[in-house]
Amino acid sequence: MTEAETYCVQLGAKILREHAIAVDTPHAADIRQTIDRMEKIMMATQGVGIAAPQVNVSKRIIIVASRPTRRYPYAPIMAPTIMLNPAFQALSDVKEKSWEGCLSIPSIRALVPRYQSIVAQYTDLQGVFRELKLDGFVARIFQHECDHLDGKVYLDRVEDNADIISENEYYKLIA
Q1: Quick check: is 145 catalytic?
Q2: Which member of 100, 145, 159, 167 is catalytic?
């Protein structure tokens, strides 16, 4: 893959602060092309999730693909799941702070509070509405990617600037 094919939109790009548009036709060629590009970029960068605005497309599409990586060595394995028009409901008010990073904000990590347990709702590529209970790290990925669809990045959720560190310092913590 060329550098252009693995490029993820970076913090400061206007599209990362916009509300993405709902997907009306899951089978449309442009939707499939966007998803293909998202999958390629996510895999090439060892990401565990990605949202369409990160590839410069204002559509409500995310992919959640939890798996162990250098950044997240203890992540559970979940097959990549394409989700159109995702939403969620928290199953309780309990939030947990844990480390997050973002392909659109390289070299930074931060402690971010997220709901521990959620019910995710989305439409699959066949146009079928789905609900899925998600917990822990996978619930975190889902919420992180949904934020991208609403023009938010994980740094917007940080409660204390002292919770933001460089990726090099993060690697020392998880070693």
Answers
A1: yes
A2: 145
The structural domains of the chain, with segments of one domain joined by +, span: 4-174
Contact predicate 52/34, CB 8 Å: yes
Q: Return the closest-CA partner of residue 23 out of 83, 84, 88, 64.
A: 84
pLDDT exceeds 80 at position 3: no
- Asked if 8 and 55 touch (Cβ cutoff 8 Å), the reply is yes
Q: Residue 135: beta bridge partners?
A: 117
The beta-strand segments (E) located in the chain are: 49-51, 61-64, 81-90, 95-102, 105-115, 117-123, 129-135, 164-166
Identify which of 150, 77, 73, 156 has the alpha carbon closest to the alpha carbon of residue 114: 156
Closest C-alpha to 131, from 144, 139, 120, 140: 120
Domain 4-174 indexed as CATH 3.90.45.10? yes
pLDDT in tens, 98-157: 999 999 999 999 999 999 999 999 999 999 999 999 999 999 999 999 999 999 999 999
